[in-house]
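hey so i finally got around to running both of the ones u sent me last week. sorry it took forever, my laptop kept dying halfway thru and i had to restart like 3 times lol. anyway pasting them below in the order u listed, first the sequence line then the structure token line for each. didnt double check formatting much so if smth looks off just lmk and ill redo it

first one:
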Amino acid sequence: IADMRITHKDGYFTTKNGSQWPRVPQEKIWIVADGNFIGAINFRPVVHKMLENYGGHAGYSITPSARNKGYMTKALGLLLSDKDRMTKLDRDYMIVTTGSDNAASQKTITNNGGVFIADFYSEEMQLDRQVYHIPLKRGL
């Protein structure tokens, strides 16, 4: 269900409040169902302070027509079971964040073992976020 594409972003990005943060290497994982692109996961094995609360190790999106069908839950689960990628993480859990009002994303995270850590207001992005940690299963 996933077709891999690698992208590395160099330089800096500017947030809504004007602060600048370094871009981190990331891998874009395309989600394909029945030959059609339906979404993507941006996987970042290393995150800095701002990404710990906004973005995390994995950020994802899915097309409206593919929502609420379990595709993203499965795709995130496949990523979590990928030993090569998970050994690259900078800690023993994956950080995933979502909008405080995004029940579907919260369900995707908790269905993959995510544990709610905190509500957080991102000054940089001027958005309410929820932070989750998904413990890694070592010895995959």
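and the second one:
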Amino acid sequence: MSAIIPPWQARTDFEIFHGLASKLSELARGRLDTRYDLVATPLTHDTPGETAQPGGTVPDWREAGRPRPGHNLPAFALVERDYTAVAAKLAGLGPLAEESGMTVKGVTVYPRAEARWLADRCGTAAGGAASGRPLLDTDVKFCEAILALSGTTNGRLAAEGFARLAERCGPGSGLTALGESVAERRVVFSDTQARPVQVGASFEWSGKEGPERRYAPFTINTEHRKPWHTLTGRQHFYLDHDWMAELGEQLPVYRPPLDLASLGEHPPTAGVEGARSVTVRYVTPHSKWSIHSEYQENLLMQTLARGGPVIWLSVQDAARIETGTPGERAQIPGHRPARRSAQRPHQTPDQAHPPHRRLRPAVLRPQLLRPHRQPARRRHHHPTPLAERGVLTCLAAHPPPAASWPRWPWS
């Protein structure tokens, strides 16, 4: 939602998307109509598919027999897409939330009571694909649905999720009592308009939060004996998987910062006599004065800081370089204002003109492009050398002819 009412003929993003959906539905009649797609769903975390191939082995299909969906192949489903009803479905709450439930981190809850509440509060569609379903055709109604379907703002769902967790973690976990303590909590949209509202503890998150304590991650694991979301249920560092072992990444190891000069990047002090620079690893935890990367310019946030992006350096690295003009230098060792914020030129005026606002090249990790590598083998301790014209070559501006690319086993 916008911070202000859009002026004149401007519209909110919500209204724009609904307008696009309405026009798409109109144009789809007689053209797209209804189509069917075969959708592949990967074997995801916190599902039985996660242990479909035990031991971390990834056998070659040519050796292990034909692939099976849900085992060593994604699950497949035939999905009907009625393009003439896109706008109607976008403006209503569908029935699958009640029928199949909402699953978060392996825990499923059923918002049947919430669907009835939304129907009473927001009204129902009079006809079309969403006939009889709760309406979400305005931004306020959509916000009501978000608040009603989240355990952090709807204690009934939180209590139901904690009850499901208690069945797995045992009666001594205290999760049932935790659910009962938040069961009566409810936040509606008008509450958020009146004042900032604190959310409550929910099965959707790993931490606990309430009037008596601030949020801290993993407190549900440590205080209520909930297993960690790993194959062993415990914290561990070793990742027993063929692909990770092949690339030497089954254990966390130190990797120095990339040599940007060899990648065509040069520090801003290159060629400047007497200038100094340092190469550091860029770690981005939550900022103290923003919400993720947003709202740094918000007036309330700027009362807590100077509003510009900030980088924290070690005292040793900070002593080796100087950043910004003397008036910008912080008095605290290791605290420096950031100079690279190409999307916010009002904070860093020198970024408002080229070449600072050019597109930045992305550095890819070749191990994420797994299909172009040779099939993994068990107990490999070193990465297999890339075949000629392998992944790194395929990332070039002029890739090799298709005939020279690695072929799939079934092609």
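quick thing i noticed on the 2nd:
The chain is about 25% helix and 10% strand.
anyway thats it, ttyl
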